[in-house]
Design goal:
The chain has four helices and 16 strands. By secondary structure, it is mostly beta strands. It has two domains: 51 residues, no CATH class; 206 residues, Fumarylacetoacetate hydrolase, domain 2 (Alpha-Beta Complex). The strands form three sheets. Strands 3-2-1-11-9-8-14-4-5 form a nine-stranded mixed beta sheet, with helices on one face. It has a five-stranded mixed beta sheet with strand order 6-16-15-12-13, with no helix packed on it. Strands 7-10 form a two-stranded antiparallel ribbon.
Length: 279
């Protein structure tokens, strides 16, 4: 099942992507948050006849595929080729950091801060948590997953590396956490550790990786993170990015006003963003 949120910002409704159309299920599921993300609730929704729900007649904006508001836990240096391009050693354990912004939609603009010097891209697989998880075992990790989505960890590298302290400073500007276009329930993904991950800037492919190359896979990350903090329905784990980010290019290349960013993962649709200056 592919779930979306569609409509104007702040007034999104829940839909199911069924074939080539989106069907409005908002009367049944008012919001994709909390108990609605529990794997049991999602299974009950999947068992319903999609033809019983009205077709969304006109293409509309897609919002974040889940309700914003949960925490965003990110994993750094989780691909060896990205660690190499960043000039950093491979971590002995997963590197964790947080993003302090809200989730945004898969086609919303990326808003560049006035003071930005080095806004960069990182295409990633996102895990969306569906039920409360704390100190879970790897073997049980998938029981806590609502689904998977594409995610771009937009980063301001100067703020991240030169402004002292933790990485969160460079990770949390408005629009720096787009997710979607849909939430794919786990049954839609035959092997989450075999998904192509790609991103292009102005039509030029710069990232071309695969989740098979993650140093810590999905099950390991859920278990590991849950031993340091509780995970709640609607929390997002961004699982890291392969090589090809702007700071790793020679010479480095960062986003500017007017740039077009496209990216995606196998089975999880595509993002398409235009870079605009934040007024």
């Amino acid at each position: 099942m592919h779930l979306v949120r569609f409509g104007p910002e702040g007034r999104e409704r829940v839909g199911i992507r069924h074939g080539d159309v989106v069907r409005d299920v908002s009367q049944r599921v008012p919001t994709l948050s909390g108990a609605a993300l529990d794997p049991g609730s999602l299974a009950a929704l999947a068992a319903l006849d999609p033809h019983a729900f009205p077709i969304v007649q006109k293409p509309t904006r897609l919002g974040a595929c889940i309700e914003p508001g949960g925490k965003i836990v990110c994993v750094g240096l989780n691909y060896s080729d990205h660690a190499k391009e960043a000039g950093m050693s491979l971590p002995s354990e997963p590197v964790l950091f947080m993003k302090g912004c809200r989730l945004s939609g898969p086609n919303d603009p990326i808003l560049l801060p006035q003071a930005a010097q080095q806004v960069d891209w990182e295409m990633e697989l996102a895990i969306v948590i569906g039920s409360f998880a704390l100190t879970v075992a790897e073997i049980d990790a998938r029981n806590y997953v609502a689904g998977f989505a594409g995610f771009i960890d937009v980063s301001e590298r100067n703020w991240q590396h030169a402004r002292q302290g933790q990485w969160v400073k460079g990770k949390s500007w408005l629009s720096f956490a787009p997710i979607g276009p849909w939430l794919a329930t786990p049954d839609e993904i035959s092997n989450v550790q075999a998904l192509d991950v790609w991103l292009a800037v102005n039509g030029v492919r710069v990232q071309d990786g695969n989740t098979a190359d993650m140093l810590a896979g999905v099950d390991k990350l859920i278990s590991y993170i849950s031993h340091f903090m509780p995970l709640y329905p609607g929390d997002v784990i961004a699982t890291g990015t392969p090589a090809g980010v702007g700071m790793g290019l020679k010479p480095p290349r960062y986003l500017k006003v007017g740039d077009e960013v496209r990216g995606g993962l196998t089975g999880l649709g595509e993002h398409q963003h235009r870079c605009e200056r934040f007024a």
